Amino acid sequence: MDTLGPRIKELRLEANLNKAALARRVGVSDVTISYWESGAIRQIGHERLVALAQALNCPLSRLLEEAGTQAAPLYLRSRPPLPWQDGRQKGIDLPIEMVPGQRWDGDCHLVTPAPGERFDFLAAGDLVAIAPSDIFRQPGLYLIDDDGTLAIRRVEQGPTGELLFHRESSDEAMPWTPACRLIGKLVAHWRVQPL
């Protein structure tokens, strides 16, 4: 994550903020801002990244983009195709220190619900990083294809190894059916908090 520190500094200067002003907006000390910009602190929690993007008045994707590339969020709709299937959308390499406790390899895609679309576990404006995968890796939120409809479900293994999924509004485990297939693992989730 060598590019995040310089990017924070660049965006801070673009926003015409000194370290103390940015620190007040984010809710951290100006020393923390210095450590982030220098790379001395490389792990920044999701909530702080969202607050940082709000304070800098920039999209979160701009903080996460690789040098020379733009990682604009893709719109997720409830019907296929997947937003990254057209081949023009490149994935991002999301540094593991940004998502402690997750295990995955390969690219991720920044995704947000399309206007008017509703998904369990996601609010309008939320941003998620989805690692495409048809393999169950660990319990958590997954993008699934449920008989032609894309949905977000909390997936876990039952006592005998079978996959179970849960809706946001119910604790009742639903058995996996042949009409369901895993599409990707949600490895990071950012929600904009009101100021």
UniProtKB/TrEMBL annotation:
An example of a GO molecular function for this protein is: DNA binding
Entry's SMART domains? HTH_XRE
What domain of life does the UniProt record list for this protein's source? Bacteria
Q: Where is the HTH cro/C1-type domain?
A: 8-63
Listed InterPro entries: Cro/C1-type_HTH, Lambda_DNA-bd_dom_sf
* Name of the protein in question: Helix-turn-helix protein
Q: Can you name the source organism?
A: Halomonas ventosae
